[in-house]
Every structure is written in structure tokens, then in C-alpha cells.
Amino acid sequence: MSRDRLYLFDTTLRDGAQTAGVEFSLEDKIAITRLIEELGVDYVEGGYPGANPVDTAFFEEKRTKSATFTAFGMTKRAGRSAANDPGVQGLLNSAATATCFVAKAWDYQVKLALGSTTEEHIEGLGDTVRTASGAGKEVLVDLEHFFDGFKANPEYALSCVTRAIEAGARWVVLCDTNGGTMPAEVRQIVGTVLKFAPGDKLGIHPHDDTGQAVANALAAVDAGVRQIQGTLNGLGERCGNANLITLIPTLVLKPYYAERFETGVTEAHLERLTHISRAFDDRLNRAPARQAPYVGASAFATKAGIHASALLKDFSTYEHVPPESVGNERSIMVSQQAGKSNLLTALSRHGIVLEKDDPRLEKLLATVKEREARGYSYDGADASFAVLAHSVLGTLPSFFDVEHYRAMVERRHNAQGEEVTVTEAVVKVRVEGELLMSVAEGNGPVNALDQALRKDLGVYSKRIEDLELADFKVRILDGGTGAVTRVLVESRDGSGERWSTIGVSSNIIDASFEALYESITYKLLKTEAASVSAAEETLQHATAVG
């Protein structure tokens, strides 16, 4: 039986940026794009080039490897052609492969927000789509307020759909912009739209204002649309958008959908689902929702009670999917069931191969659990996990030891009488028996410590020359005077690779230094593996020649 293809479109970097309290930096957008692509989605919408400096810089180069890189923007302004509209041309000149234009499908909004007429707006929609399509872009049209517009004036709403498709749009997306449409209404209205447009050109963009965004997305799929738009963890303005972290496993794992539809998501993608969700929350400096479907810490947690014996014989009676299928793990209150398979998968990503019955695995698992109880989280700090694993397994080389460090912040007046803040750090390390001391000034204590720590590592100095700090985030885990601080540091090097390390302490400087130390250690681990591989190749070549 052939299955219809469903396409997944992620709008985290635009819709998510409209969330109260969320502000993405350029580094955030680059890192989040990598997370999104790990899901196996088809499209990544990166924002609105020209709307702000961050989005403009983000679209200066192609940021995706497999997903279609998509820019968002407005249709042309009234009174000018799309070819002469700076906003439209900015989209077409960006590095995006596809462009998504927003148009208003509710006649009331056309008059209220645009001060225009429906005839003029329809003409502008067609001109914009033709111009973008002629420029070689794949064109999508988001029909804002479609469901409210259809209820008020179905003739106009449907004319927006047909005009966009006639002009060359690949997708026309029906938006439930205020999130107030019921699933039964979605199914009914989409059924009508299908009389005017094929389902493989229609998408759904639901908001979650009634808590039914996922249900509305599924209702639209049942009715015939073949593209779904949503965000990581349901991020978005007001109550958020359809949650792709919930939608994706539902579409892939539930026979009702899996037997009828296929997506670009593989088993390997799904096994990273929990990691991606939690790493995204770590980047936003917020606690993951414990009861989130599929990926929450409580998603597969069961309070055994009087059902303990039955539960231990057959977990499936309490679980709708195997937890490992989405990268999560089972938790039973009377005995924690450790996720060995998850641990083995994580180790394999770093080239560490162990048998499932290796006793060192139990020790590593216990160490991870103990550190997580103290505030560590390795979902968003995979490099720290690699360092920890090598340490516990006894395979971590002794690159350098930190014997002492000090950070000093001083506010004083300079020679011009201006009040300035000066930060200085001193670090003493021992490398192969030699004691080295470095002093550095920086923009704050963390930057100063970073500069001092990397200033002189003796024989390892050249191996970290291209290492730099890309991002730094702090989260307070417990309030009060004894608060525990978690620091997440993102680093990068000349190869283009980025990695994250974590530090936890009641002292923010101590936590920061731990994360910096592990970042450098991970970099040295990388270069150690590369140098060993190069040496082996040289030896093999010499042997062959000899």
C-alpha cells in the first residue's frame, strides 16, 4: 500500500522569536538550526531578512544542510510592483532557497490592518508569487487568519488560495492565526478548500490558544493537507504553536498515521527527539516541561504502588510507545530503570564502543545519574558527556592540571577621570610536569579566565589556536542564598564544529571555569584522535612502501 508524503515545516526561528522573553542571537539561530535538522524536517524557516540585523546576517549564507532554507516576508506593498518592492527583493536576494510570503485571507483584516481592498491585495499576492517563482525560488504563501476569513467571506478566502496556486506557489498554508478554530471546523473547512486546490499543495499552521494546535494539525492531515507547520516544544506568541516534538512521533509511531503517511523522519531522528527538546530548552535557559508528551521526564514515569508486580512484568500496559524509540527512558518510582541503550548510543557518537554487559557502563550510568541530581544536564552539553565518559572509563589523557586560578574585578577611574571596570584573571597550570602561569584581561571574569587558560598550554598551545568561545548562558537552578548555578558554554573551532560544555556550582565563576576547562579538554580530545589517526596512516604508508 503506497503512502502519501507529509512535509514538515519548522517555524521556530520566526514564530518562536515572538515568544515573550525569547530573543535569539545569531549564534542561537545557527545552533538551533542544527537541532531542527536533527529532527529530519523538510523546511527550516529562519526569519525575515531585512526586518532586523540578526535575521539579515542569518540569511547572508545558506544555513541548512538537508532541509530547505526558507525566508519569510510580506507580499508587495500597494502602489508598486513586486519587482520594485525593496522588501520582496530583499527576500529574493537572500541565501534562502524558498520564500514564504504572508497574505491576509480575512477581508476584515485587509481593510483594518492594510487599509486596502481585497481586489488590490489579491493582485499583489499574484504579482509577488509570480516574481519570486520567476526568480527561481520555491514559493510558499501563508494565508493569515484563513479560518476566520473563510467563515466571514468564503469567496474571498478561497480566491486567495486559487490565485496563489495559479501564480506558481508550491504550497498554500491555511493559518489558524488566533488559535480559536475547533478540530471539527478545521476538518470541514479544509474539505471545502480541497474542491478548489489539491491537498499536496496545502499546508496547516495552527496556533495553540485553545490547547488544540496538535489536534487541529492532525485534523487537517486527516482532511487532506500534506504540509504541517510547527515549532520546537510548541514555542510561539501567546500560547504557542503546534508542537513538532509531539506531532512528529505521533505521525511516525502511531499506526493510524504511519500506515497512511511517510515523512523524512527516520528511527535515528526519533531517537534524538528527547535530546533535541531538552537541548533547546537549555539554550532558552528554561526548565524542560516534566510532563511533556514523549520527551518529558515524567512521560514514562509510573508510580508502581499496588500494580508493581504487573508493571515489572509488562511495561507496555503503561506506555503507549517504547521510551527508547524517542530517546527517553523509563522511570519507576520504586526502582529507577537505567537507559543503557541510550548511553551506548551516546557513547558511539564519540567513537566509544562498549558491550552492554561491560561493568564500566554501570559505573558511568551511576555517575551520570548522581551528577544530574546535583544539577548537571548532558542533553545540551554533549561535549561534557564525552569528557565525563572518558574520565570514568579511564581513557581520558592527562593533558593539563589546573593548580590555581583567580579572577579579580576592579572598578576605578582611568587617566581621563572616567569610571571603568577592569577584569583580570590569573591561571596556573601544570603541563607535563612544567608549571605555567598566565595573566589576561577580559570583558568580565569569564572572558578573562578563558583568555588566561588558553594563553599558554605548553605543548598543546598550537592545538587550541583556533578555539573560541561562541556563547555563554547561565541558569539559576535553586533560589535563595545557596542557589546552584548551571553554566552552559558553547565553543567552536576552525573546522566549523561547535560543542557545548557544562559547569555546576554554587559559585558562578567556579561553574564557568569548569565549563571552560571541559571545552578545552574536549578540543584536545578531538585533536588527539586526529593526530593518532594521522600517525597510523603514516605508519601504514611507510610499511606499504617498505
TrEMBL record:
CDD domains: DRE_TIM_LeuA3 (cd07941). It catalyses: pyruvate + acetyl-CoA + H2O = (3R)-citramalate + CoA + H(+). GO terms for molecular function: (R)-citramalate synthase activity; 2-isopropylmalate synthase activity. Keywords: Amino-acid biosynthesis, Branched-chain amino acid biosynthesis, Isoleucine biosynthesis, Transferase. Pathway: Amino-acid biosynthesis; L-isoleucine biosynthesis; 2-oxobutanoate from pyruvate: step 1/3. InterPro entries: 2-isopropylmalate_synth_dimer, AIPM/Hcit_synth_CS, Aldolase_TIM, Citramal_synthase, LeuA/HCS_post-cat, LeuA_allosteric_dom_sf, PYR_CT. Its EC number is 2.3.3.21. One of its GO terms (biological process) is isoleucine biosynthetic process. Residues 6-271 form the Pyruvate carboxyltransferase domain. The keyword Oxidoreductase does not apply. The keyword Transferase applies. Belongs to the alpha-IPM synthase/homocitrate synthase family. This is Citramalate synthase.
